[in-house]
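Exercise: predict the fold of this chain.
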Amino acid sequence: MSDNKKKRSSFFGTLGRWFRRAFFGPGRELLDAEKELENLSEEEREERARKMDVEEIVTPFKQYLRGFLEHKLAVGALIIVVCMFLFAFITPLFFPKYSDNYIEVTQQNMRPNMKLMNVPARLKREGIKKIDSYGQFSVGLSNEGNVFVWGDTIVGTTGINVKNIPDSVKEANIIDVAAGFDHIIAIDDKGRIYGWGSNILGQYGKPKNTYSDSIYLPDILPTQTVDPSVIKKLACGYQVSGLLMNDGTLYLWGNGKTCNNLEKIYYMTDGKSNVDDFAFTKNDMVVIIDGKLETAKADRYQTIHAVIGDEGYPLSDYLGDRKIVSAVADSTTVCLMLSDNTICFSGDFPAQSVAIPVLSDGEYFVKICAGDHHYTALSNKGRIYSWGGNILGQCDISEIKGTASDVFAGANQSYVIDGEGSLLAKWGHRGYIFGTDPNGASVFQRIANGGRMTLTIGAVAVVISTVIGIIIGCISGYFGGKVDIFLMRVTEVVSAIPFLPFAMILSAFMGRVAISEDTRIFIIMVILGILTWPGLAHMIRGQVLVTRENEYVTAAKAMGVKERTIAFKHILPNVISIIIVNLTLDFAGCLLTESGLSYLGFGVQLPRPTWGNMLNKANNSTTIQNFWWEWLFPALFLAATTICINMIGDALRDVMDPKSNSEK
């Protein structure tokens, strides 16, 4: 047998023995060893015992490693720190659409929730008639007239849970339902109108405290009943609601400011014009009257786009003899369906949007529905299309198993059903594992990106501090004399500088200077490094003063070795243990310092996140009491990282400095 084969055989044999011991215990091997000892002579047994008594010689690194592994808590802390680094530097790679400036009002202050697409099982059993959503929750209507609510159903700080459907609604046969930002409107088969959720601006009735900008439901529909057979459309928006009848009568109620003078539009359409359709954007509304577009902000919607991203055309020129049949709207744009079965768009398109798909010959849309930033449509050939903003995966159509007959759009979701109301497909945003902040941004994504910034600043600051401390400490301790006196006086001057006030003053000064945020961050790292090295320099100087008296230093001098070589290549490696320990502890200190500066508003500025300024953003009683996830998760990540780094530093100090370890 060749040497290579013997080595492979020995290697696999060793692995096999390890595997058996790990999972089946060493019983068989012990029996074999006992039998082998029985067959040995007395002299052979004594020889084996002498070999076993020989002390194993290991390298310092292996000795340090073994000592560190004996500290179980430190090993666990090391695993946590490694996971934190991987989380901070790898996780953001999976969020290519992340933006520090992301703002979405309808998703602000959402609780940790991954159930935004969890359609209730009973609704699916009874058959889906309608699904509607405007923001954080969705409402569904079954073929049997029952209402279901799911998602983040608690309204802001009010404590109102829209999932608590009124008993009168549960007992009624509901024929239509719509969800707004913070309320739900339903109509039963007898024409009664129901509302629940927030009613502060008269979303479904006259509240206790009235506001001059609100239009109240009792003032428009005194009896609060309508003929259900002539209802054309029910829709809700941002704290407003609208009901359109077949005869063109449009009823509006809710916050008048939100939709730019709703009362003016209401009186304009009340019995004077034939309203064909209406739609709510986030801050506006549009109505279609006699085939023409009317809105309180005429300039915003007078430029028409046949395709998203084109130069646009004046509304009147583009329409020609065609009329507008219907309209649907997301937060900032309006989609108009024309009399020749074509569509066009107006409004403000987001930077990241998916262009409308090209239809085949003879194909046209029979239904279009809108979410907050996307549209989903069904064509006459049964095909499904989805386009618009796709930051949350709203346009990533999933596999559809069956023949689609209807589509519905949630705020950031889409649903496809067949003729019997069975759910064929759903896609879009499932929720936020750590909730959202006041801007509607994912706390999880901001923690990941903020961790990368916090850890980077801490690491660079420690490197700068360590390099300066090593150079000053080595030179001062080795050369002594006037050099030592001068460098130690400089060290004491730097030590005397009050770090936090100095950093705050310098940061405030930088705020008045026109510099980029990247330059500001670089300056923060340099400041942290320059002001935190004196402690390390003192410790290295003390160690070098002791080490330079050893014989090997005298021998090196006698051999003519250069002074700097002796200091940095002979003495420094012998004090490396204290450098490693100090580097670890200083890293945790720099993390806390950066986070403290950012928390006080003098570090990295928003919207760029760090763990510190995320805590600063949550520094108010309302957030602490009602939106606990906005401060708890950043605090946990920061605390876990710094505590674990300190535990690692303490363990390394015990291992590398036997004098500090009472067990040795």
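Check your answer against the key: The longest helix spans residues 443-479.
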